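Journal club side-thread
Mid-discussion, someone asked how the predicted structure for our own chain would compare to the paper's figures. Pasting it here so we can look after the session.
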Amino acid sequence: AWESAYRAITGANAPVAYFRPPAGAVSKRSMALMNQLGYKTLMWGAAYKDWDPSAQPTQQAAMTLLRHYTTSGDIILLHGVSQTSSDVLGGYIDEYRSKGFAFSLP
């Protein structure tokens, strides 16, 4: 059902082959099921506590954490409910592009 919703919202026709476990919670059973369904499970390499709208870090604190944890090849996890993440995202991308990083889907 979520694949249908994803396609309806994005207009994408390609198969959705990736799965990010909510809250990073995985088990042998969930991993086996995702593999059986043809999904590749992806985790993230850099994240900070931005999922709680009532407890947002400052922009400076967010950038400090992102700079500390970002390495080549990482998946950066930012949550859509985070005003801080929304506020720093453009500058973060610009900063890392100037360092030679590229941003893309897996």
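Post-session note: Strands lie at 18-19, 40-41, 46-47, 76-77.
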